[in-house]
Amino acid sequence: MFSQAKSFLAPEATVTSLDADDKTENEYTWTKGEVQPSGVYRDVKFAIAFLAHLVIIFITAMFAPSIVKKAFLGDISYYNQDANADSNNFDGDGYYNDNDEGENLDVESAVKKGSAIILGAVAGFTFLSALVSLGLTLVALYYLQMHAERVIKISVIFTFLWFIGLGVLTLVMDNSDAAGYYGGVDNTPLAVVFFVLGAFYACYAYGLWKDIPFAAATLSTGVTACRGNLGVFAFAFVSPMINFVTVIVQFMSLVSFLGWLGLFDSNLDDYHETSGAVQFGISVTYILFLVSLYWTSEVIKNITTVTVSGTIGTWWYSPSEASSCCSSAVMDSFKRATTYSFGSICFGSLIVAILNAINSMLRRAQRDRRCVLFYCVIRCIMLYVQRLVEYFNKWAFVYVGLYGYDYMTAGKNVMTLFKSRGWSTVVAHSLVQKAMFMISLCIGLVTGLIVALASSLVEEVAVGFGASGIGLMAFFMSFYISIINSSTLLSVVSTSTDTAIVCFAEGPAEFEENHPQLSMRMQETFSATYPDVNFGRADGEVV
């Protein structure tokens, strides 16, 4: 990794920082991060729990086909009893006797061919969407490196226009006469809400505009590091497919558990006829399924985060080890993320997964109009808690990837680092995330149009077999796939930018030595953007 990298700060330093908001001096004792010894597994209990839960999921999923088959045969026998009472109206194949057998075969053959065409088109559209979105994302990287500031400014304006556009669209769709005639509601209050949000965001953007140059310099640094180590995109690229497979397996496992609880028994006419114990078991199963679903998704995402952070850290301190697509930095960082730091990833991911599951249940509970206000308040509180945990996780996993600390130590150390530097304001905004969202949306729209045009080649053939609307289906499907794919890939850029901020706080001297041009730009924009916030200079002095 970068254990031999030079440190311009003492391992432990007392830093007096000037808070950028209230201009008060705060003194913090801050310990500089150090690479942890290799061969030591952190937060092992959580890694074991996650792997054990995956084993249970995969084993129980194997029973799903037999359970579904049993339930399906039970339904068939139930309906056959009714069918036999009036069997004279049907022949042995289930067709009316007054139909010609040849016509039935022709219709069946056409349906099979149409289905085959649609399935083939879906597979082709999926592959083409992934390929096009990958190419457009790589093109976006080159553009971001040269025009990061322009992209961020456009994304801020885009967000403002988004609110205004929603308000205008709501007014255009509003027709008071039609609403009154059909018993609908007036959309004007909703439009006013969007306009007010747009006005608030305009004020927010005005205050945030001065932060854009430093955010752009940090983004340019992150993109440069990613382009020098394109291998960091490999796992991010396949992670949506891994997630898709695990969701299918988890759903099969859910089916198995519900089958064992008797939910699919043919003698049950209604869910409410089950006993209280069975209903309780089904509810617990749904909750555990939600936690498992979110936990697995978070673990897959955070493996990418830790891998990227470790790679960017090596590029920062020891660039010779991180200067190719599949450099040793990429491979070693991925190895640490899936072994020694895997328990830490599972620990932080579990916290977010539980909060996600709670919020999902609260959102469902809001349908009860008797307690809608109570659930709304509770859900707002839980969403706020979730945002705080996600913010903590983002920086904690960066520190885990950089140094290999356990989850709690990493989170504590990185937050102390920001406080000691007086950087709470520096890391509070999400300008880079806004830019990534806008780029993902643009990539989704362009990919959807390209795939929709390509689908016109299939449209004429498909219509002949009764399959119409291929172009529209292709657009929406490719738009959704490319949004997921590009968002996942661009999350690598966001993580690299976050890592650059942490490394800039800890090692500006190494950065100036290894990447002088990028360092000069970041130092100049930082000093211009945050003149009252102190940071260590390249001469080694702690300010």
Summarize the structure.
Helix content is 74%, strand content 3%.
Kindly name the structural category: mainly alpha
- List the secondary-structure elements in sequence, H or E: EEHHHHHHHHHHHHHHHH
Report the total helices.
16
Main-sheet strand order equals 1-2
Q: What characterizes the major β-sheet? A: 2 strands, antiparallel
Q: What shape does the CA trace take? A: globular
Termini gap: 28 Å
Supply Rg: 28 Å
Helix content: over 70%
Number of strands: 2
Contiguous low-pLDDT stretches (5 residues minimum) are 1-26, 85-101, 176-183, 537-543
Q: What proportion of the residues form beta strands (DSSP E)? A: under 5%
Mean pLDDT: 80
Description:
Helices cover 74% and strands 3% of the residues. It is mostly helical and 543 residues long. The chain has a two-stranded antiparallel ribbon. A hairpin with a 6-residue loop joins strand 1 and strand 2. The longest helix is centred in the N-terminal third of the chain and has 73 residues, at 101-173. The two termini are 28 Å apart. The model is unreliable at 1-26, 85-101, 176-183 and 537-543 (pLDDT under 50).
